[in-house]
Amino acid sequence: NGRLILCQRAILFCGWAEFSTFKKCVFRILLSFSMRKADAIICNSDYAAKQILDEWNIDVKKVFSINNFIDVRNIQFHAQESLSGIENYDHNRKLIISVGSLYSIKDRITLIKAYLKIKSKTDAQLIILGEGEERARIESFILENGLHDDVLLPGWVQNPYNWISQADVLVSSSETEGCPNNILEALYLNTPIVATDCPGGTNAILENGKWGKLVDVGDYCAMGQAILDTLNNNKPVKTMAYAEVFSQRSIIDEYLSVINNLAYKKQNHLYDRI
């Protein structure tokens, strides 16, 4: 008898290629029932919200787009810690960082191929923070290409913020993204960004390349060149002020507006933009 708010945290049908036809059918039915039953649906990107509207005949006034938030005080505190705990890290080399799980959707192989393209042109290490089922495949690719001292896979780390803050560039090579936290964090820490222009919220967050370089999904040549250009650019990046719009306080206020009054029409409501 209560009110139901659903939160859609990822791109619809992401990773469904591996599902059987029966499983896809069951999931579509369950999703359709859930979406129609909800009093409000909160998505973490405009892209995800429009997917829902395109897939099901749902009242547009029930669908809201609210980005993920970043805990700026926590990021500030932990970003100041010294870099340690990663074996074979060479602080004398430039640092390329990537943060996220080792799953196929993150497309780490394309990232490593991009690194291979520029390896002879810059003295940099690539560190990928995260864990997942693709580890064995990625490790094999690293060994096959003689990159065991150049590409490091330390796994999940307690504090990624000091690594992001000290990096010369953060790279997101994903095939799809909802609202990528690592990009929000890099923006707040004034770290240069190279990211794939993938389905999801990345393009909107970076405002079509204003706050970071965008490349096509799977294009390791373009990604490598974008990384190299960023490493060779010594101009300081100033993105922290922009990233404040993703602060905890700002985003929580948006959630509270939906929760307190489902009929409240906010400025960032998807209805106002289509």
Describe this entry's structure for a reader.
With 274 residues, the chain is an alpha/beta fold. It is built from eleven helices and nine strands. It has a six-stranded parallel beta sheet, with helices on both faces. The protein is globular. Mean pLDDT is 92; it is low at 264-268.
The count of strands amounts to 9
State the end-to-end CA separation. Answer: 32 Å
Spell the H/E element sequence: EHEHEHEHEHEHEHEHEHHH
User: Sheet bearing the most strands, described?
Assistant: 6 strands, parallel
Helix content: 25-40%
Uncertain residue segments: 264-268
Strand order in the sheet with the most strands:
6-5-4-7-8-9
Strand percentage lies at: 5-15%
- Shape descriptor reads globular
Number of helices: 11
Radius of gyration: 20 Å
Mean pLDDT: 92
Structural class: alpha/beta
Keywords:
11 helices; 14% strand
Give a short summary of the structure:
By secondary structure, the chain is of the alpha/beta class. 38% of the residues lie in helices and 14% in strands.
